[in-house]
Design goal:
The chain is globular, with a radius of gyration of 19 Å. The strands form two sheets. It has a seven-stranded mixed beta sheet. Strands 8-9 form a two-stranded antiparallel sheet. The chain is of the alpha+beta class. The protein contains eight helices and nine strands.
Length: 267
């Protein structure tokens, strides 16, 4: 039945600028909307509505980076009737406003996230305030050697969006100290050293993994092991302005494994 979810993901990717409803997507997968909702959530980790919202905001990121369209024009292009609603949701999901994202460079992304990452990664366990916070440790494995260090962020959503509550950089082992209690999702992302098959001159693909929900209590010491794999069609787009990821635009996957243009053509 997974191929039916692929079909609905393709519908989202191709028609994200339209007012797609749950009924529309269920019809594209040829199943009842209640069964479709359960199956889609199981395969992708999020509901169809959240996947659609992530695709819209990610396409907005692409347009901000690759065109000179203003924010109002982009909000219409990606399916929002209200520029204010678009700007608010973009800011909540990405961590900066659309205008700030267009101007953001890698150094600024490092400033946004990196101070947390280095503080959590390098601090010895003795300094952790165990009475109020927790620590998170683990390993990162991959069959493909990453091009650079793996970025790990602890987020409130199965979609990598907003700003992390804790972060770290790692090669094989990691430690996050001063993790606040709560229910979190641990995301990991790194560039692969290999290019997309048959596209040696393009940006290398991203390697990703996610663990969660992790229910973390004060004083806990939690261990999580991650296994990075190439980003594929089942995963919602990365929305957070992560160090080193801005500008590495993810492909749009069709069910047969083909890649499609990410930016819609002009009307």
């Amino acid at each position: 039945m997974e191929y039916l979810v692929q079909r609905s993901v393709m519908t989202i990717r191709e028609r994200f600028h339209e007012p797609l409803s749950l009924d529309d997507l269920a019809r594209s997968a040829m199943m009842s909307k209640f069964y479709f909702l359960r199956l889609f959530s199981r395969v992708t980790g999020v509901t169809p509505g959240r996947f659609l919202s992530a695709v819209r905001l990610y396409e907005a990121q692409r347009l901000l980076l690759t065109t000179t369209l203003n924010v109002a024009e982009i909000s219409v292009r990606v399916g929002y009737a209200s520029t204010g609603t678009f700007s608010r949701r973009f800011s909540e999901s990405v961590g900066v406003s659309p205008t700030q994202y267009r101007q953001l460079d890698c150094a600024e992304a490092e400033t946004m996230h990196g101070s947390q990452a280095h503080a959590g990664a390098d601090r010895p366990p003795e300094t952790t305030t165990a009475a109020a916070t927790a620590s998170l440790t683990g390993t990162v494995r991959t069959q493909q050697r990453p091009l650079s260090a793996v970025y790990l962020g602890l987020f409130s959503s199965p979609i990598m969006q907003g700003r992390p509550v804790a972060a770290a950089f790692a090669t094989d082992e990691f430690r996050m100290c001063d993790v606040p209690p709560g229910t979190w999702y641990l995301h990991a992302v790194a560039h692969s050293a290999a290019a997309w098959p048959g596209e040696a001159h393009t940006e290398p693909p991203l390697l990703v993994d996610m663990a969660g929900p992790l229910r973390i209590t004060a004083g806990a010491q939690v261990t999580v092991d991650l296994s990075l794999r190439p980003f594929d069609w089942t995963r919602p787009p990365i929305l957070s302005a992560v160090p080193g990821v801005k500008g590495a635009l993810l492909p749009v996957f069709h069910p047969a494994g083909r890649r499609a243009p990410a930016v819609p053509s002009s009307a």
